[in-house]
Write a structure and sequence with these properties.
By secondary structure, this protein is an alpha/beta fold. Helix content is 40%, strand content 21%. It has a single domain, classed as Rossmann fold (3-Layer(aba) Sandwich). Helix 1 packs across helix 8, helix 2 packs parallel to helix 5 and helix 6 runs parallel beside helix 7. It starts with a helix and ends with a strand.
């Protein structure tokens, strides 16, 4: 009962913060990344943690299913932390984000890292998959924490573009948050309390589109079985920056997909 009351008491503050989010998602993301000053474990970006145990969930499945000789595209790369990790496993790693501020930050944080590049591209725009295929040929694709903040129609268009980008030999590894409770209980699980919302969470609530969840049902809609084969899937644990001094682990879902 106490937890439920706490969630109800969050409503006014969350509602106020949400009114500050631009209605246009592209504008929201550009504004968000344009205001970021610090990243990493003590930074402002909710999902930008030092890569550790979360990556262990992906390593074996990548080795088993992806052609290591192909390039890999990091869809929704943000500040490029995972792009840099992927560059250790593939000859070329390309980070893609529709926020130019995110891409600029990713390039700065990557320094002279070998085999890494970043480009502004909105993968929910029709035809971008063909552009990627023409530029890179068949490619693997990594998607972390992107699909759950898209609208259903945007997910479908993203799936179509990724199908063109992978060609015949590429694969897609997606990993998404999949908290199945209501939005208030989700915020509570991340450390939000009445009058005390951790700063990275506060910036997310007031700056970017409301997140949803993404599991097998949502994956089937965005990556239909007539076009995609599910090579493996299951639960995952997604890490976020520590809130109120404690590690933050979010229930998630991962799937390795290949074209039929």
């Amino acid at each position: 009962m106490h937890r439920f009351v706490d969630q109800l008491r969050l409503v006014p503050e969350v509602a106020y913060l949400s009114t500050r989010t631009p209605r246009n998602s592209a504008t929201a993301w550009e504004n968000y990344w344009g205001r970021v000053r610090t990243t990493g474990m003590q930074g402002e970006v909710l999902w930008d943690v030092e890569i550790g145990s979360e990556a262990d969930q992906y390593s074996a499945i990548i080795d088993a299913s992806m052609d290591a000789g192909l390039p890999i595209l990091d869809a929704g790369c943000g500040n490029g932390r995972w792009t840099r990790w992927l560059s250790q496993r593939f000859p070329i790693a390309v980070g893609l984000d529709h926020s130019s501020s995110a891409v600029k930050r990713a390039a700065v944080e990557s320094g002279d890292a070998a085999g890494v590049s970043f480009h502004v591209l909105d993968l929910t725009v029709p035809g971008t998959g063909r552009i990627l295929q023409e530029e890179h040929g068949d490619a693997n694709i990594f998607v972390r924490g992107l699909l759950h903040i898209l609208q259903p129609r945007e997910r479908v268009e993203l799936g179509r573009n990724l199908l063109e980008a992978v060609g015949r030999r590429g694969r897609v590894l997606l990993t998404e948050t999949n908290y199945r409770g209501n939005p208030l209980s989700y915020l509570h699980s991340l450390g939000a309390r009445p009058g005390s919302i951790p700063d990275p969470l506060r910036k997310a609530i007031g700056g970017i589109p409301v997140p949803g969840h993404f599991g097998p049902v949502e994956r089937s809609a965005a990556f239909p079985g007539e076009a995609w084969e599910v090579l493996s899937d299951g639960p995952a644990l997604i890490e976020a920056v520590p809130m109120n001094g404690s590690p933050t682990i979010i229930p998630g879902y991962l799937a390795m997909l290949g074209p039929r």
